[in-house]
């Protein structure tokens, strides 16, 4: 990663699905603009269905690693984006100059567990994958001038 680029962390509970998709899309669209990472409060391993739906979109995340936030302790993030409620509520204390944004996405594994068919389950992954893509693709415009500000975009972690 280029240390001169602003650093973005996508944070979720297990760093297995949503944050991995977000990292993949961010690298796909913005690797020349940001240093991009993902992590979890815990590490649950990479979700195979997340790999499948991202591959369908032409983005390979199979080599990404599921990791806990502590494994990235040496990095001073400029922006942390929580992608699930659990990560938002359990967000670790961040440096005061780190911006935080909470953008919740549905949990595909939870929705897949109650799906009637395998195709319906995969449909949940595809929908969330596309929602994450839409958000990440327009991330520079969402951040606008706020990214260079020291004010939080959303509430600070408690």
Description:
- The relative contact order is 0.20.
- Helix content is 37%, strand content 13%.
- The chain has 158 residues and is an alpha/beta fold.
- It has one domain (7-148): Response regulator (Rossmann fold), CATH 3.40.50.
- Residues 148-158 have low confidence and may be disordered.
- The chain has helices at residues 18-30, 48-56, 85-89, 108-113, 118-137, 139-143; strands at residues 7-12, 35-40, 79-82, 99-102.
- Helix 1 packs across helix 5 (118-137) and helix 2 (48-56) crosses helix 5 (118-137).
- A four-stranded parallel beta sheet has the order 2-1-3-4.
Provide the descriptors you would attach to this structure in a database record:
about 160 residues; alpha/beta; Rossmann fold; four-stranded parallel β-sheet; 4 strands; about 35% helix; about 15% strand; disordered C terminus
Overall pLDDT score: 89
Per the CATH scheme, the topology name is Rossmann fold
User: If strands are numbered along the chain, what order do they take across the biggest sheet?
Assistant: 2-1-3-4
Largest sheet: 4 strands, parallel
Topology summary:
Elements: E1 7-12, H1 18-30, E2 35-40, H2 48-56, E3 79-82, H3 85-89, E4 99-102, H4 108-113, H5 118-137, H6 139-143
Parallel strand pairs: 1-2, 1-3, 3-4
Put the structure in a nutshell.
The protein is α/β, with parallel strands linked by helices and 158 residues long. The chain is built from 6 helices and 4 strands, in the order βαβαβαβααα. The protein has a single domain (7-148), classed as Response regulator (Rossmann fold).
